[in-house]
Amino acid sequence: MQSELVDSLAHYLVEGGRVFLQSDVKKVxxxxxxxxxxxxxxxxxHQETWLEHNPLPVATEREIATINKGEPVYRxxxxxxxxxxxxxxxx
Length: 91
Known about the structure:
Elements: H1 3-12, E1 18-23, H2 26-37, E2 42-44, H3 61-68, E3 74-80
Antiparallel strand pairs: 1-3, 2-3
Protein backbone atom coordinates (compact mmCIF):
# COMPACT_ATOMS: atom_id res chain seq x y z
CA MET A 1 0.00 0.00 0.00
CA GLN A 2 1.45 3.30 -1.08
CA SER A 3 1.28 6.44 1.06
CA GLU A 4 -0.36 8.22 -1.90
CA LEU A 5 -3.40 5.95 -1.54
CA VAL A 6 -3.65 6.76 2.17
CA ASP A 7 -3.41 10.48 1.33
CA SER A 8 -6.16 10.11 -1.30
CA LEU A 9 -8.43 8.29 1.14
CA ALA A 10 -7.82 11.04 3.71
CA HIS A 11 -8.80 13.62 1.09
CA TYR A 12 -11.93 11.93 -0.26
CA LEU A 13 -13.43 10.01 2.69
CA VAL A 14 -16.10 11.74 4.70
CA GLU A 15 -15.37 12.60 8.32
CA GLY A 16 -15.69 9.38 10.30
CA GLY A 17 -15.34 7.24 7.16
CA ARG A 18 -13.90 3.83 7.92
CA VAL A 19 -11.23 1.74 6.24
CA PHE A 20 -11.07 -1.98 7.01
CA LEU A 21 -8.02 -3.93 5.89
CA GLN A 22 -6.86 -7.47 6.41
CA SER A 23 -4.11 -9.78 5.24
CA ASP A 24 -2.89 -13.26 5.99
CA VAL A 25 0.68 -11.96 5.64
CA LYS A 26 1.68 -10.31 8.92
CA LYS A 27 4.39 -8.09 7.42
CA VAL A 28 1.95 -6.75 4.80
CA UNK A 29 -0.71 -6.12 7.45
CA UNK A 30 1.82 -4.32 9.66
CA UNK A 31 2.94 -2.10 6.78
CA UNK A 32 -0.65 -1.20 5.88
CA UNK A 33 -1.55 -0.50 9.52
CA UNK A 34 1.57 1.60 10.04
CA UNK A 35 0.89 3.69 6.92
CA UNK A 36 -2.58 4.57 8.17
CA UNK A 37 -1.60 5.15 11.79
CA UNK A 38 1.31 7.38 10.81
CA UNK A 39 -1.08 9.61 8.86
CA UNK A 40 -2.36 12.53 10.99
CA UNK A 41 -5.99 12.10 9.90
CA UNK A 42 -6.52 8.42 10.66
CA UNK A 43 -7.04 6.78 14.01
CA UNK A 44 -7.54 3.17 15.04
CA UNK A 45 -11.06 2.10 15.97
CA HIS A 46 -9.88 -0.57 18.40
CA GLN A 47 -7.50 -0.90 21.33
CA GLU A 48 -6.10 -4.29 20.38
CA THR A 49 -3.39 -4.52 17.74
CA TRP A 50 -5.50 -6.81 15.51
CA LEU A 51 -9.23 -7.40 15.29
CA GLU A 52 -10.06 -11.00 16.11
CA HIS A 53 -13.13 -11.15 13.86
CA ASN A 54 -14.06 -9.69 10.52
CA PRO A 55 -16.65 -6.93 11.13
CA LEU A 56 -18.16 -7.44 7.68
CA PRO A 57 -21.02 -9.90 7.17
CA VAL A 58 -19.24 -11.96 4.49
CA ALA A 59 -15.71 -13.35 4.58
CA THR A 60 -13.51 -13.40 1.50
CA GLU A 61 -12.58 -16.72 -0.11
CA ARG A 62 -8.95 -16.19 0.89
CA GLU A 63 -9.94 -15.41 4.47
CA ILE A 64 -11.98 -18.62 4.65
CA ALA A 65 -9.15 -20.68 3.16
CA THR A 66 -6.62 -19.16 5.56
CA ILE A 67 -8.80 -19.84 8.59
CA ASN A 68 -9.53 -23.38 7.39
CA LYS A 69 -5.75 -24.00 7.30
CA GLY A 70 -5.57 -22.81 10.92
CA GLU A 71 -3.54 -19.75 9.99
CA PRO A 72 -4.11 -16.22 11.31
CA VAL A 73 -5.74 -13.32 9.53
CA TYR A 74 -4.51 -9.88 10.59
CA ARG A 75 -7.29 -7.27 10.57
CA UNK A 76 -7.61 -3.65 11.56
CA UNK A 77 -9.94 -0.72 11.07
CA UNK A 78 -9.26 2.99 11.08
CA UNK A 79 -11.47 6.03 10.69
CA UNK A 80 -10.89 9.42 9.18
CA UNK A 81 -10.74 12.15 11.78
CA UNK A 82 -9.58 15.45 10.28
CA UNK A 83 -9.26 17.11 13.69
CA UNK A 84 -7.91 14.26 15.80
CA UNK A 85 -4.84 14.72 17.91
CA UNK A 86 -4.93 11.45 19.88
CA UNK A 87 -4.82 7.94 18.43
CA UNK A 88 -6.55 4.94 19.97
CA UNK A 89 -3.28 2.97 19.76
CA UNK A 90 0.25 3.93 18.88
CA UNK A 91 2.61 2.13 16.53
